[in-house]
Design goal:
heterodimer; A: mainly beta; seven-stranded mixed β-sheet; four-stranded antiparallel β-sheet; about 50% strand; B: mainly beta; about 55% strand
């Protein structure tokens, strides 16, 4: 299994500002992912964080809005840029086990934009 | 894009009653996984199904993967209050090691 530390756990931010969320894994993993989960909704995949190359974004998500870094195999950051109230959500990082058999999630970052 | 739908959206049952949630994918899946998310928590892995027609059991939970590998179900026998939460399926496409989550079924169990 993988233990994922995500921070901050929650934040309240002013519109127009940016927030960077950090995700630290206790072991080296090939694939890391960022999800968004709005209250009472499902998880929507934002992007795959690739080590050594640019992140791969899903439809509807762009690098300018959600820049992602992946400097090594145990760490990634997601920045929510130029925030608006519509960005209020829970953001989760996730890693996949070595054999791709399950995903592990961080505790999530509850973001409120006012 | 990839879509994974789940029904029902909500289910309220009396403790002891059975519960089933269904998952359908618009495309054939490499495998499917099921997760449970308690209120305020993050998704926790339950099981993975890989083979066409596969059936797996975990105590009161029975998981099935359809023959065409496009649908799946989770059945809970004799629900307990500890089963409360949202159940998500997550489909994995061939050659892509990332998961697309279904819309989820929120289960409430009344004691």
């Amino acid at each position: 299994s993988a233990v994922i530390s995500q921070k901050p756990s929650r934040d309240i931010c002013q519109r127009g500002t940016s927030l960077t969320i950090q995700c630290q894994v206790d072991s080296q993993v090939t694939m890391m992912f960022w999800y968004r989960q709005q209250p009472g909704q499902s998880l929507t995949l934002i992007a795959t964080a690739n080590q050594g190359s640019e992140a791969t974004y899903e439809s509807g998500f762009v690098i300018d809005k959600f820049p992602i870094s992946r400097p090594n195999l145990t760490f990634s950051t997601l920045t929510v840029s130029n925030m608006s109230p519509e960005d209020s959500s829970i953001y989760l990082c996730s890693v996949v086990s070595q054999w791709g058999t399950e995903a592990f999630f961080g505790q999530g970052t509850r973001l409120t934009v006012v | 894009g990839q879509q994974v739908m789940q029904i029902p959206q909500y289910q309220h049952v009396q403790e002891g009653e059975d519960f089933t949630t269904y998952c359908n994918s618009s495309t054939t899946l490499s495998n499917i996984q099921w997760y449970k998310q308690r209120p305020g928590g993050h998704p926790v892995f339950l099981i993975q199904l890989v083979k066409s027609g596969e059936v797996k059991k975990q105590k009161r939970l029975t998981f099935q993967f359809g023959e065409a590998k496009k649908n799946s179900s989770l059945h809970i026998t004799a629900t307990q209050t500890t089963d409360v939460g949202t159940y998500f399926c997550a489909g994995n496409l061939y050659n892509f090691n990332k998961f697309y989550f279904g819309s989820g079924t929120k289960l409430n169990v009344k004691p």
